[in-house]
Amino acid sequence: MSERRLEVVILAAGQGKRMKSKRIKVLHRAAGRALVDYVLDMSLALSGHAPVMVVGHDREAVVAHCSDRARFATQEQQLGTGHAVLQAVKLLGDLRGADVLVLSGDVPLTRPETLRALLDEHLSRAHGVSMMTMMLDDAGSYGRIVRGPEGNVERIVEAKDASAAELRVREVNAGIYVFRGEELERDLASLSATNAQGEYYLTDAIATARRRKESVGALIAEPIEALGVNSRADLAHVERELVRRAIARLMSEGVTFRNPDSVTIDAQVRIGQDTVVYPFAVLEGETVIGSDCVVGPGVHLKGCRIGNGVEIRTGTVAEDSTVADGATVGPYAHLRGGTVLGEKVKVGNFVETKKAVFGKGAKASHLSYVGDAEIGADCNIGAGTITCNYDGVQKHKTVLEDGVFIGSDTQLVAPIRVGNGAYVGAGSTITKDVPAGALALTRTPQRTIEGWAARRRLERAAKK
User: What is the domain-level CATH number for residue 296?
Assistant: First the structure.
């Protein structure tokens, strides 16, 4: 529709005092990502190249987080939104033939399709400025949209500068703008700080455009798309919406949620078709779950890769772990970082693993700790088994070759290797390597004393 190029400016200089936080507002996380990450994604989707981000407070942290996705302009003093955009425009060079889209780094819920509709309105009608607005019953501190007799946007009045009649206006500024680049730098440089807050308002550029007889476009959007984060309550509201969208997307792709409102899920989580997610699951980070899985009640996965046909039972916790096709985990298992479970592995209730690799078909069904270990295919680890991997200074490795059987209540003192098909008897403490096919035992002979219990009772009675 137009050959004009698009430049994007993201405002991210504000501190966010109402967050009551040591962290700058745009780096607070919602649904697993920093607020500004969502805005950066929108920018790239629309323009195809890095935006200019205006930084100020805690600029080092913001630059470090966004350095590979943005260019940066610094606003040394926070003198208002008009002053902030002016700092960015100085980096954009010649803006003839360009439009400038201004976004806020703390407004993550705007949909790309809404911004495309705003840009289409701007270009098709050749507006000098276009903006996004919304209708609110209680407009609060939002700037009011003042329209002329024919319904055209004339200006925006900040709430602190508004008259009583203007404060009754329901249409308000959503804080997203598109400017024709040709006049933008000059318009910004001419702004005045003669207002209640002593700042250079970007909104005053609307009135400047109108004085040049340029039209101002306004696209009314849903209020949720313009929700900015100014408090912890706002952050919670934004996160609820991001989680709702993530679950809605996954359900449209063939995932079943037994109770969607009870599930916490990060925006980047991926789940395959016909997987069922039960209530109170928490799925975080870059977690990927395959098809035909069951994620049980209260399961917590963070940064995990789960294959197809896996059942993760009630209360299991796993972080930075990989589970292959057909495995069963839990209930109440704990997979710590570096755990890799092969196909059809079973890790049962109250089993803890850490940096443990299980071969195909291996089993640790209950009440065991397996750390810094390689477990071969078809091994069976009995209840109460412990790999003693830490000597107080260093970690050591346990290796069980294929087909090993470990009896219950065994301690494997690493470093140690148990050969193919070997057996370890229940109740053993194994400190030396076990050859393939051998049986290792460390039991003392059982001693039975007949009549001992009766004599003990008589002794106690005599003492009374």
Answer: 2.160.10.10
CB 129 within 8 A of CB 217: yes
Q: Residue 57: helix, strand or coil by DSSP?
A: coil
User: How far apart are alpha carbons 330 and 315 in whole angstroms?
Assistant: 7
Tokens 């200089």 locate to: 13
**Cβ proximity of 46 and 6 under 8 Å:** yes
Report pLDDT digits (tens) over 309-343: 999 999 999 999 999 999 999 999 999 999 999 99
Return the closest-CA partner of residue 399 out of 371, 425, 368, 427. 371
Q: Look-up: residue for tokens 């008589």?
A: 458
Cα 235 to the chain's mean position, in Å?
A: 13
* % of the chain with per-residue pLDDT over 90: 81
* 194 and 276 together in one domain: no
Could you list the active site residues?
Answer: 366
Beta-sheet pairing, 98-104 with 171-180: antiparallel
Cα–Cα distance measured from residue 74 to residue 90, given in angstroms and rounded to the nearest whole number: 11
What span, in angstroms and rounded, lies between the C-alpha atoms of 135 and 130? Answer: 17
Whether the CB-CB separation of 310 and 328 falls below 8 Å is answered with: yes
pLDDT of residue 1: 43
pLDDT of 6 > 50? The answer is: yes
Tokens describing residue 400: 């069980």
Confidence band, pLDDT 50/70/90 cuts, at residue 278 = very high
CB-CB contact of 415 with 397 (8 Å)? yes
| Nearest residue to 33 via CA among 69, 65, 8 | 65
Domain range for 433: 371-446
- If asked whether residues 45 and 134 sit together in one domain, one would say yes
Is 220 in contact with 171 (CB distance < 8 Å)? yes
Write down the pTM of the prediction: 0.90
2 pLDDT above the threshold of 70: no
Residues 185 and 279 in one domain: no
Note whether 45 and 115 are within 8 A (CB): no
Which value, to the nearest 10 degrees, does the dihedral of the CA atoms of residues 254, 255, 259, 261 take? -90
Q: Give 76's DSSP letter.
A: S
What are 253-274's pLDDT values in tens digits? 999 999 999 999 999 999 999 9
Burial class of residue 126, CB neighbours in 10 A (0-12, 13-18, 19+): exposed
The answer on 155 and 60 residing in a single domain is yes
